[in-house]
Amino acid sequence: MPISYLQFEGITKNFPGVLALNDINFGVEEGTVHALVGENGAGKSTLLKILSGLYQPDKGIIRLNGQSQVFQSTSDAIKAGIAVIYQELNLVPEMTVAENLLLGHMPEEFGFINKKGMRDKAIKQLAILEENIDPSAKVGTLSIAQRQMLEIAKALIRDAKVIAFDEPTSSLSDREVQKLFEIINELKRQDRVILYVSHRLKEIFGVCDMVTVFRDGVKVETFNDTKKISQDILINRMVGRSITDIYNYSIHTHGEPILEVEDLMGHGLSEPVNFSVSKGEVLGIFGLVGAGRTELLKLIYGAIKSKTGKIKLHSKEIKIDNPSQAIQNGIVYCPEDRKKEGIIAIRSVKENINISIRRLIARLGFINEKKDNENAKQFVEKLNIKTPSINRLARDLSGGNQQKVILARWLSEKIKVILFDEPTRGIDVGAKSEIYSIISQLAHQGIGIVVVSSELPEILGISDRIIVMRQGKMHTSLKHDEATEEKLLRLALPVV
Question: What is the assigned CATH class of domain 6-239?
Answer without folding.
Answer: alpha beta
